[in-house]
Amino acid sequence: MDVQVLGRLQAARADQQIYLPSGRKPRLALAVLLARAERTVSTDALVAALWGDRPPASARRNLQQYVHQLRSALGSERLQGRPDGYAIVVGDGLDAARFRTSVAEGTRRSTRATSRRRPGCCARRWIYGRVLPSRSSPTAR
User: Does the model's pTM come out above 0.85?
Assistant: First the structure.
């Protein structure tokens, strides 16, 4: 499964788009989980992210509904329940993780470039290497 968070939030499995819930709260819950991919996010942390300091009495039930919607889209093997919360398992399918890896690799390989140029070089490789859509692509507009 590939998940893109750099730009528009979207997911695909075997080159088929996965239709994510369109509501603001389920997408926010997904974003919080993806920001801590592969790690457990406590139910309390998710409730705080979705409702702040004043969650409604139904917050936990609502969160369970959002998780159900996300599991329907992504699969229960990807969005796992844990004893104290939830974790999303994406492996190397998260574009932000691939970008961080690419920057780190480019930094290690670049011995001649100045430290100011390294991130720019890596970003250009990332963009023009078709990991992100190019400026001329219809999805970049």
Answer: no
pLDDT tier, 134 (very low <50, low <70, confident <90, very high otherwise): very low
Distance CA 77, CA 22 (A): 21
Contacts of 19 (CB under 8 A, 6+ apart): 73
Q: Quick one: angle between helices 59-74 and 24-35, nearest 10?
A: 70
- The one-letter code for the residue type at 78 is R
Cβ neighbour number for residue 2 with a 10 Å cutoff: 16
CATH dotted code for 2-91:
1.10.10.10
Domain spans in the chain, listed from the N-terminal domain onward = 2-91, 95-140
Give the count of beta carbons closer than 10 Å to the beta carbon of residue 107. 15
